[in-house]
From TrEMBL:
Residues 27-67 form the HTH cro/C1-type domain. One of its GO terms (biological process) is negative regulation of DNA-templated transcription. Gene3D superfamilies: lambda repressor-like DNA-binding domains (1.10.260.40). It comes from Flavobacterium noncentrifugens. One of its GO terms (molecular function) is DNA binding. It comes from the Bacteria. This is Bacteriophage CI repressor helix-turn-helix domain-containing protein. PROSITE patterns: HTH_CROC1. InterPro entries: Cro/C1-type_HTH, Lambda_DNA-bd_dom_sf, Phage_CI_N. Pfam families: Phage_CI_repr (PF07022).
Amino acid sequence: MNKENPVDTNIVLRKLKISLNANTDIQLAELLNVKPNTISTWKKRNSLDFNAVISICHTHGIDLNELFYNDGNHLTSNHS
């Protein structure tokens, strides 16, 4: 993690994929309305477009606290 992004992007994206039933980064990119290489860039830079993530969470009823702060282990058994 860096000082600009206090969350682990890889974990957030993994939990977001589970919550949205997206099996691949390409599917996640389509849902977020970004190019597939954007997901790769976010992972490399440990950065996110927080507005895009928050917007899709709002649209799909995803709890932001669960996404950003909890470890998300419980999501794998409920949404896989």
